[in-house]
Amino acid sequence: MTVSNVINGRTDKVSAATAERIREIMDRTGYVPNGPATALATKRSNIVALVHAASGERPQPSPHDSIFLDEVERGMTKAGRYLMIRSADDVAVTAKELRSWRVDGAIILGAFTSEADEVQSKLGLPLVFVDNYSTSSRISRVGLDDFHGGLIAGRELISTGHRRLALVAPGVDRPGVIHQRFLGFMAAVSEAGLDREAVTLLDSAPFFDAALALGQELAASPQRPTGIFATADIIAIGLLKGLVESGVAVPEQASIIGFDDLPEARYVSPALSTVRQDIPAKAKAAVAALLALIETQERGAEVRLSVEMARRGSVAPPPKA
Amino acid sequence: MTVSNVINGRTDKVSAATAERIREIMDRTGYVPNGPATALATKRSNIVALVHAASGERPQPSPHDSIFLDEVERGMTKAGRYLMIRSADDVAVTAKELRSWRVDGAIILGAFTSEADEVQSKLGLPLVFVDNYSTSSRISRVGLDDFHGGLIAGRELISTGHRRLALVAPGVDRPGVIHQRFLGFMAAVSEAGLDREAVTLLDSAPFFDAALALGQELAASPQRPTGIFATADIIAIGLLKGLVESGVAVPEQASIIGFDDLPEARYVSPALSTVRQDIPAKAKAAVAALLALIETQERGAEVRLSVEMARRGSVAPPPKA
């Protein structure tokens, strides 16, 4: 049992000296555990999966997803687990495929709220949904206070003097993180006594080039909003570049706030003010939640991380009319 | 056999109609193949691994590695394989761990040249080394023409008029991609009849903040080089930001060329001139090489992709002395 604990990376149950001795013997004899045989015997594969919803047409991986994945991999490796990854147009189909490998559990990133229940009931596996707003008591969730993020972005623009506002997002209607950010932003508008008409809603795919094109369009429009909130940094960065290249100075003529605080927020000029989330912390919480779920099978836990304004150079008072 | 081919994703050996019918039956009956049992019976797990060398101290994942990984995952999924990923301080140790899962093969990204032989002989598995300059006939390699990349970067700066040059890299001495880019750059210096002393070698870790600090330092130095080649975009982006923030105009007072053509090269102002590599094509080549190797076991193949200058706004003639 002790040896098996060491082999399977459960060293918390074994003294450090003993674990070290066992590892030495394994090393010397060239012992390699037989994963498939162990999985059949114990019904545990020690494999966990990360499934992330991703359009096949995406021009490049989302930096947010890459940081999340990187941290999940480190966390699972540290816990002695193997990580399988799979991007999916249809999360339900992919999740089923993963059953074939008898994964012990999975983290599902970016599925729509409506898919969560279906995936959970089809699989009956330990699953942790990240950035998902399912209200089912059977779903374990890790996410952010997205509403608060939208709220502080709105407050930041309004308190700086902006009255012609825009919210740029890949659609705000479907229940989920973007919808929550939208609701928070509108709450800031409402608490300031502004009319809903003060806000222009603009659609943009969450890709640099789509947002760049929109920024160029905005630059040419006569009744341009002066205070812009983009629900993702990658959109904000494209808008910023599109505006600046078209001769609209940021922040002098237009202010922009993003969401995420990607490393890229600091690469651009001016550096991007944004709603900061701690992506590695979110990944660590998802890893911890899944490992706990595998042990206890008690679903329904919810972790919601806080967000905060990261103030940089892309916000200033609006130009005098 | 036909059913097994469909289950295992080898649909190239089965007519499309038959494959579709078998999938329908599997769907209707809720059939899920038992991966571990199949692996024991066939000695094939259908799992492949991507191992990437990565320092535990990295502040965030390398965008290059994220794009590569994303494309490998898509390719392996399309081929009906499962992908395990593992970052590793020590590639040899991690590769051994993966044997436990009876992976059918692995792609090794970023291992040092000297490690390749050791890993290959210890594992005896189908392995494809990416960006590796081992000359062993037992190693299968996919990489770039890094020498040519350094050469065209050097020519670009010299032909624009620069005579005070710098090469910024995370060390140029160890055999590998960086060393090749350095050799190519020095060949351009030599073919132009310039003295080696025209080139200042500067060290920078491949992280934005390290390069930012170096850019700030450079801005303050009296005999500043005017033409800078960074062996990675992430370094070039940090340098650019550090110089510009410290009041050195790019490209008017300093020119910068990167290497990679990451999406981020277009986010910065001015947009970065850089040596373009096609990372998704490199990933596709690695996937194809590994799948071929798993079938034939014939090692020693080599694929080397070309690179080219992507000209943007960060290069101009040097200021008049």
UniProtKB/TrEMBL annotation, chains A, B:
- Signal peptide residue numbers: none
Has the keyword Secreted been applied to this entry? no
Q: Which InterPro entries match?
A: HTH_LacI, LacI/GalR-like_sensor, Lambda_DNA-bd_dom_sf, Peripla_BP_I
Domain of life of the native organism: Bacteria
Q: Domain HTH lacI-type, which positions?
A: 1-42
| Pfam families for this protein | LacI, Peripla_BP_3
GO MF terms here are: DNA-binding transcription factor activity; transcription cis-regulatory region binding
Provide the alphabetized UniProt keywords.
DNA-binding, Transcription, Transcription regulation
The protein's name:
HTH lacI-type domain-containing protein
